[in-house]
Design a protein that fits this description.
Organism: Streptomyces finlayi
Strand content: 5-15%
CATH class: Alpha Beta
Oligomer: single chain
Bound molecules: S-adenosylmethionine
Number of helices: 9
Number of domains: 1
Shape: globular
Order of helices and strands: HHHEHEHEHEHEHHEEE
Protein name: SAM-dependent methyltransferase
Pfam families: Methyltransf_19
Mean pLDDT: 93
């Protein structure tokens, strides 16, 4: 690294106390509905209401949300163990232990992690993301994934873009329609990074149970949230369109991505209709 900013310095926006951040509780927000699925306390009645509707439609949703967190842990462990020491996690969500930096820094205490989310509730709770080891660094950046150039510019305060960075877009891209530039966002982020960088993503499947997924999309739409399921081929295009090489086992159902790396995971064979994949920039 050319310069070493002090650990836990956010590149922008020091998290303010929750009561000084404007939180819109009149409509559900993806971060808070997901928090409800995970059994968290940082959600409001509107979030719980949508969460309950989704669980009534798909009773395994809470199990799927937990599997999504376990995938984050497995992918982070894999990357940290194979030498990645910088992480850019976009669409971080409300902190949920263990957070990505804890997993990465358990493998390599020097790991540096920049978290990004556009929801003020995540900013309000961001202190929990800033508990770095002294050797490493963590930072939180309040930004929209649809501004990849701004994210790259600000993340450079903490991450060295001449060394590989793992970008994680975990359960994020299904909130970004193609028309809002989902593929371009991934392309721009990976373009800014050197060879040996990685992309980790999970994506709600559009070719699992088409009818029920359409009902879920409608429930989110009624709550003012756009949800974009994608087929396996459409998910794979995030990697192929940016020239990334898929890490084994390729794009698979989320629990099937390198399950041997799991720690304390529950597995009962229930289908999880999310795709997962990790790709490496050659
Ligand atoms: C389902 S949560 C996933 C959280 C975490 N990545 C995980 O998998 O556990 C999706 C997160 O993406 C964030 N998000 C959605 N659209 C976004 C955007 N355009 N820019 C930044 N964050 C976004 C939401 O606020 C939410 O925190």
């Amino acid at each position: 690294m050319t310069s070493t900013p002090p650990a836990t310095t956010p590149p922008t926006g020091v998290p303010a106390p929750a009561d000084r951040i404007a939180i819109d509780t009149s409509r559900p927000h993806p971060a808070r509905v997901y928090d409800w699925f995970l059994g968290g306390k940082d959600n409001y009645p509107v979030d719980e209401e949508l969460g309950r509707q989704i669980v009534a439609l798909e009773p395994q949703t809470k199990y799927c949300a937990r599997h999504n967190r376990w995938l984050m842990q497995r992918a982070t462990r894999h990357l940290a163990r194979t030498g990645t020491r910088q992480f850019l996690d976009i669409g971080t969500g409300i902190p949920t232990a263990p957070n990505l930096h804890t997993v990465a820094q358990r493998v390599n205490p020097e790991a540096r992690v920049v978290y990004v989310d556009n929801d003020p509730i995540v900013l309000a709770h961001a202190e929990a993301l800033l508990t770095s080891t002294p050797e490493g660094a963590t930072a939180y950046l309040q930004a929209d994934a649809r501004e990849p150039d701004r994210i790259a510019e600000l993340a450079r305060d903490v991450l060295d873009f001449t060394e590989p960075v793992a970008v994680s877009l975990i359960a994020l891209l299904h909130f970004i329609p193609d028309a809002d530039g989902a593929y371009e966002v991934v392309g721009k982020l990976m373009e800014a990074l050197p060879s040996g960088s990685h992309l980790v993503l999970t994506q709600l499947a559009g070719d699992f149970d088409v009818e029920r997924t359409a009902q879920a999309v409608e429930m989110y739409r009624a709550g003012g949230v756009t949800l974009v399921p994608r087929t396996k081929e459409e998910t794979e295009r995030f990697f192929t369109s940016t020239g990334l090489q898929l890490v084994e086992p390729g794009i698979v159902w989320l629990p099937d991505w390198q399950p041997h790396l799991g720690v304390d995971e529950e597995r009962d064979g229930t289908p999880v209709p999310l795709y997962a994949g990790v790709g490496r920039k050659p």
